[in-house]
Design the sequence.
């Protein structure tokens, strides 16, 4: 079977269009994969936010072993300071949870967190400070 110049041209055009379509598809898939990866990353807090979080964690440790009324006053003061000074709301949410757990522990509440709960929260908070150079450690409360 002989092919005419028109048939060769059509075949070449099909190959070129197919290759371009494949390249476009791979580019879109790569971009979508990158977007998905970045979307699931924790927000990155500033070093100042992470230092503030570390300070609050240290204070929470002390308050959780003290009297409940003082822990409640501390929580109100700290919450106000965290809301006005901390820029990363996602890290702030994790620290707020630790603050409230410190008060529950001081109140000897049955809703106080387990060591595993604290460890899980620590892992979430650390994800926000991964690029800041500040390490966060949340010891179990009330110790």
Sequence:
């Amino acid at each position: 079977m002989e092919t005419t110049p028109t048939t060769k041209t059509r075949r070449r055009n099909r190959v070129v269009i197919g290759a371009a379509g494949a390249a476009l598809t791979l580019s879109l898939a790569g971009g979508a994969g990158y977007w998905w990866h970045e979307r699931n990353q924790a927000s990155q807090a500033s070093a100042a936010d992470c230092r503030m979080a570390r300070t609050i964690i240290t204070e929470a440790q002390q308050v959780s072993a003290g009297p409940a009324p003082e822990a409640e006053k501390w929580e109100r003061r700290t919450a106000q300071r965290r809301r006005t000074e901390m820029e990363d709301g996602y890290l702030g949410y994790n620290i707020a949870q630790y603050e409230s757990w410190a008060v529950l522990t001081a109140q000897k509440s049955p809703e106080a967190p387990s060591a595993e709960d604290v460890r899980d929260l620590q892992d979430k908070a650390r994800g926000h400070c991964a690029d800041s150079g500040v390490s966060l450690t949340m010891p179990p409360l009330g110790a």
User: Anything to note?
Assistant: The two ends are 88 Å apart (CA to CA). The mean pLDDT is 83. The longest helix spans residues 5-39.
